[in-house]
Amino acid sequence: MSAAATAPGTQPVSKVTDTSILDKQHDLPAFRAAIRKWLEKNCPSVEEVEDMEAAAGIDYPKFEKYQRAWVAKLSTVGLSIPHWPVEYGGAGLSLKHLIIIADEMAKAGAPQLHMYVISFNHIPATLLAWGTEEQKRKYLPGVGNGTPWCQGFSEPGAGSDLASLRCKAERVGNEYIVNGQKIWSSQSKHAEYCILLTRTDPNVRKHAGITYLIMNMKAPGVEVRPIKQSTGRAEFSELFLTNVRIPVEDRVGEENKGWAATLTTLASERGILAFEDAERFRYKMEKFYQQALAEDAPWLKDAQRRREFMRMVSRIQAVRGMIRELLEHNQTNPDAPTIAPSVIKVAETSLEQAFYEWQTRIKGKKALYAEPEAARGEVPGDPMGSYVDSFGRTIAGGTNEIQLNIISERGLGMPRG
Amino acid sequence: MDDLTMGPNAGPNADELAALAESMADVLAAECDRRKVHGFIDGKNDLEAQLWARAKELGWFAVGLPDSAGGMGLGLRGLAVLHRELGRQAAPGAFISTLSAAQTLAEFSDAVKFLPRLAEGQVAVCVPATPTEPGKGLTLSGGKVSGGASELLGTPGAGLALVAVQDGGSTAWALIEVDGKAAKLSERKLWDLTRHFCTLECNGVTPALLVKGADAARLGRTLATHMGLAVCFDSIGAADSILNQTMDYMKGRTQFDKIIASFQALKHRVARLKVELELARHASSQALQAVETGTPDCQAIVALSKVTVSEAFAAIAGDCVQLHGGVGHTWEFDCHIFLKRSRLNEALVGQNDKELDWMAERMAEATRAGRSILELPL
Question: Which residues of chain A are under the pLDDT cut of 70?
């Protein structure tokens, strides 16, 4: 089975059948109101979203069903890929619109599109900048219709030092033969395609011998082995690649020059994902507080714990301020380098970790029960699960230590060691 | 840093603020450089008086006051720029107390007659270092103030003192003309040699202004809010300054044949300090914006921001001593000047734990009223 034979890109992007939101795009308050109104009717219930989250990395078909259903619903109003150019099926909306969409989704507690992070953000950013016209036409419509993609970048020996990757691609005729191993590939259990970094020249400077390929996950020789995380869930996998054949036309950019496109991929989140994460976290903290107040939770009368909470309130506000400033920067001055994403990543993920750690301390021994009790009580739910999972956020996407390198070296001009 | 140019902008525009900041920074860099500050704390020059005279000449005392009060109408943003630049140079003087008192009085119609003197910098003002705490030591009887109040922030040369006085069972606020006879100020030296605590002794003084009842409580919190903003921006400028100095030192210092700024253990610490500074910068600008737009919970937001920002400054200043190594512990280097400034800033307005408790009460109140204290403009 070759990639071309299964490419879903031959279908047109599904049509927007309800233009009630997109029609308002020239009037931002009306645009926001239209989204809110649509979400009131269409947003899955809290129970459904919790059921979906509970299935993540445990019950793949169930999780995938929820994700696909939500994308399908969003696409009827043009909100699945609102930021894409119109000619590739998107709505061509500006960052200002995206902020409103993310804000309303966070407020409504709408499902997050975990399965489509790569598809909707990294793929268009990369292909629009580096892809051939043929690649764009072949892949983007499918991506827009909800084809899940994954990323094959990290390797067991190439984590923070990504450019030292060794997965080998050898050119034979019109194909590359790929052999090697990839790791930490999120959502790859669901993915139909993979953006893959390979080593095509081992004899040059490490950044100079990398080739960027598009791999069909159904191609022979691709084996996906889920990795069970410390939470017990398996949301990412190892990829074992044995003589996988990839046609030359599925190369992004030139041979041995894949690093430039890699940087585009890595920079493609544009702050909007961080914005949505932080807004969701704010609502999480606030709802927790409202419930504590309604139930007159004992921690509110414990000066130390209450003060710790207030300090975290101050920090989430500051983090949200940082992200707003970054989004402003991205709109007015998108090409100027900034260390803000690194500062935000360190500040936000550390805060989330501290918050869940604090919750487990309040809950005491009950936080350690494997089967969480009822969702009510001083600290509802399973803060230990969130706490354990929070290490994924301080490690993934460039560990916080790598972010500190970026801040000190690129931001503060401190020399490399 | 463009922290003062975001959001709705009733006062000056971004360019005006940038120009203001630049002109203030230029003056301070030339006339309040580190050599002069060291000379001042060693008693070898009268930088505090010189700087006050210069500020007067340049109209800095009028920056935040409305045009109607003889001010420049540059608003809280203009004032924030001034505090930030003063903090950056660890400038000596009663700026926080005088400027905060002027902003406070501008919000009370009875007090506007004092504003021209304040706008011209003719007089410095002492205020309680912690206006959120109940005033002690001064009592009002038959319209006259007597007793003694300690821990006033300002200068012994101040011409006015804005103080809390006991009026039967309640607290009133009095503006006292310090004449050196019936009302006298004496100094209490601080570890931070660039600022002063004073004690006010009053012997049957008729206050120039008396504010009672609900207005008195409002005056106390208004003063705390303006001082809170001043402390935030002073801290941001000062923390940025000592962090930059520390990085410069680290980039020039070699050990084991390597620049110590290249050591990852140290680099990561500095990067974390930068993260704290950025958080503090945003906390400050959110506090400013809340007061400027007059959101119902703005005073609580300022109180919370002051906690975050003053703690960040203290943490940064402390680690900057350590990152310097031995020289960081000497009188000759600047670290101790900023360290001491940070600890005083931390203690001003109100004890941080108490401020957090006050914020918690306000947050509970707002939440019960169905209002979110966490709304931020997009």
Answer: 1-14, 269-270, 373-377
Interchain pair B264, A346: CB under 8 A: no
Q: CA-CA distance, B78 to B81, in Å (whole number)?
A: 5
Q: Tell whether B351 and B229 lie within a shared domain.
A: yes
Shared-domain flag, residues B143 and B225: no
pLDDT of A63-105, one tens digit each?
Answer: 999 999 999 999 999 999 998 888 888 889 998 999 999 999 9
Residues B262 and B363 grouped into a single domain: yes
Give the number of other CB atoms < 10 A from CB of residue A332: 8
Helix (H) and strand (E) counts for chain A?
14, 8
Q: β-strands A210-216, A251-252: how paired?
A: antiparallel
From chain A residues 287-306, the ones with a CB under 8 A of any chain B CB are 289-290, 293, 300, 303, 306
Q: Rg of the Cα trace of chain A? A: 22
- For A347, which residue in chain B has the nearest alpha carbon? B275
B285 contacts in A (CB within 8 Å)?
Answer: 321
A223 is catalytic: no
CA-nearest residue to B360 within chain A is A310
Distance from CA of A92 to the nearest CA of B (A): 20
Q: What is the ipTM, given to two decimal places?
A: 0.94
Whether B339 is covered by a domain: the verdict is yes
Q: In terms of domains, do B141 and B196 share one?
A: yes
Number of neighbouring beta carbons within 10 Å of residue B42: 10
For A314, the closest of B270, B305, B376 (CB atoms) is B305
Residue-level pLDDT at B139: 97
* Catalytic residue chosen out of the listed positions A50, A53, A269, A357: A269
Within an 8 Å CB–CB cutoff, is residue A56 touching chain B?
Answer: no
Distance CA B134, CA B170 (A): 10
Domain with residue B23: its CATH number is 1.10.540.10
Digit-coded pLDDT (tens) for B35-91? 999 999 999 999 999 999 999 999 999 999 988 888 888 899 999 999 999 999 999
| Residue B125 DSSP label | E
pLDDT of residue A269: 67
* B229 and B341 both lie in a single domain: yes
Residue of B307, B357, B372 with shortest CB distance to A286? B372
Residues from chain B contacting residue A320 (CB–CB below 8 Å): 376
Element (H, E) at A32: helix A28-42
List, for residues B209-243, the tens digit of each pLDDT value.
Answer: 999 999 999 999 999 999 999 999 999 999 999 99
* pLDDT tens digits along A256-304: 999 999 999 988 766 888 999 999 999 999 999 999 999 999 999 999 9
Instruction: Give the Cα separation of B28 and B54 in Å (integer).
Output: 10
Instruction: Name the domain boundary from B215, B233, B254.
Output: B215
